[in-house]
Amino acid sequence: AQKVTQAQTEISVVEKEDVTLDCVYETRDTTYYLFWYKQPPSGELVFLIRRNSFDEQNEISGRYSWNFQKSTSSFNFTITASQVVDSAVYFCALSISGSARQLTFGSGTQLTVLP
Amino acid sequence: DGGITQSPKYLFRKEGQNVTLSCEQNLNHDAMYWYRQDPGQGLRLIYYSQIVNDFQKGDIAEGYSVSREKKESFPLTVTSAQKNPTAFYLCASKVTVNQPQHFGDGTRLSIL
Predict the structure, then answer these.
(1) Is B106 close to A44, i.e. CB distance below 8 A?
(2) Distance (Å) from the C-alpha of residue B16 to the closest C-alpha of chain A?
(3) Nearest Cβ partner of A45 from B58, B90, B98?
């Protein structure tokens, strides 16, 4: 069985601060995919990134960066110079390669960026 | 624009009533999914469908039913057997395995 843990339920930062959202996963499969989604107050989930288990390179996209470490089963997400528009719930998710079935979601981290 | 359309945005159910949530996609995706989200929790899978006229139960299928008569449509019925239906329901689709799922805007269901 797969499991995703986002231990930080809520985080508040002041605008322009950097913030890191933690994600730890469990799976016995060797080939899998990790995802991050953003859920703004409007409710829809917005896809941010997909990373496969064989690619441990860190990725940067604008103010967003992701650190994938298989040794610690973590896939952390950092927002640099946070902005009020970054306020949302962020979900980390895991799927097994070749499975059409589902994503296993963490419980989410509510990020509030204060002006 | 291509996307996933869920309707209605808000829905109220009376005791003993079945209600149907609509999900339509024009992305030409094969697989479609229904998730339930409760406050402060992640998403839990209700049902999913990989092809037309076929669907499988997810983790919390009891009290729900679905159909997949057309590739574009995957409606979810919340039956009277679902005793705690108040939640936010999200529909998703994806083109093939290992690709990210794309989500609709959700339907918020409440009990009258």
Answers:
(1) yes
(2) 27
(3) B90
Name residue B37's beta-bridge partners.
B43, B88
- Across the interface, whether the CB atoms of B48 and A100 are under 8 A apart is answered yes
What are φ and ψ of residue A95, in 5° steps? -135, 150
Q: Considering CB atoms only, which of B31, B88, B105 is closest to A100?
A: B31
Measured distance CA(A86)–CA(A79) in Å, rounded = 8
Query: What number of residues does chain B have?
Result: 112
d(CA B47, CA B40): 21
Residue of B nearest to A101 (CA): B48
Chain A CB within 8 Å of residue B41 CB: yes
* Phi, psi of A70, rounded to the nearest 5 degrees: -65, -30
Residue bearing tokens 């895991």? A94
Query: Within an 8 Å CB–CB cutoff, is residue B27 touching chain A?
Result: no
pLDDT, tens only, A38-92: 999 988 999 999 998 988 888 888 999 999 999 999 999 999 999 999 999 999 9
Say how many C-beta atoms besides its own lie within 10 A of residue B5's C-beta.
13
Smallest Cα–Cα separation from B82: which of B30, B42, B47, B40? Answer: B47
Q: Of B95, B97, B96, B49, give the one whose Cα is nearest residue B74.
A: B49
Query: Omega into B8 within 30° of 0, i.e. cis?
Result: yes
pLDDT score for B1: 61
Task: Write the residue in B59, B98, B103 that is nearest to A45 by C-beta.
Answer: B103
Q: What is the average per-residue pLDDT within B72-80? A: 96
